[in-house]
Amino acid sequence: MSNTLPVAPTTRAFLAVAALGAGLLHAALAPGAPLPLLVAFVAVAAAELGWAAAALARDRPPLFAAVPALALVPLGIWAALATTGATTSGGTVLSLPFLPMGVASLLDLAVAGVAAVVLRRRRSRGDREAAPQSGALRFVAALALSASAVCAVTIPALGATDAGIAAVTVHHHH
After folding, report:
1. Helix 9-29 vs helix 35-57: angle between axes, to the nearest 10 degrees?
2. 3-class SS at 129?
């Protein structure tokens, strides 16, 4: 099976918006993390944001066959940190904000799940041809609904990150 499979536009809209939300959350978590974790957050965020843009722009999202596994990498990192009781260089236990990490994990899980369903359906039907096309109105509606749902969970989670807290506590002097 090819790594680049055609995906229905409405499905691509949801996948791209969910990956975008997860990428924004991982990027917002990076500044408050110790250096090794900061690098991991930036790398994951860059991958998610880049993939979201490519998935929305192209009929064949890159590495689509690997997306179910790749989308679970951030969850694995979080699980490994939680299980090992990772500590900072000062010897204190590293605590990541639960809400942003939980929402990013749920978004990544949604991307992995939807991609896996698409791949399984295609495999069971033997359908490797073009994805079913939907009208522009249906695509715009799917994009708007996906964006609204992802924003509803992402914006409050962004507010719970160090970057989000700093954004609302900035004082402007005129």
Report:
1. 160
2. coil
Map tokens 């605590």 to a residue: 95
DSSP reduced 3-state for 87: strand
Cα separation of 52 and 156, whole Å?
21
Between 32 and 117, the more confident residue is: 117
What residues have CB less than 8 Å from 43, skipping those under 6 apart?
A: none
> Residue 155's pLDDT is what?
92
Evaluate whether 44 touches 104 at the Cβ level (below 8 Å).
no
Q: Please give the model's pTM, rounded to 2 decimal places.
A: 0.84
| Angle CA 134–135–139, to nearest 5 | 80
pLDDT at 126 > cutoff 60? yes
Task: Using pLDDT thresholds of 50, 70 and 90, give the confidence band for residue 66.
Answer: very high
Residue pair 158/45 in contact by the 8 Å Cβ criterion: no
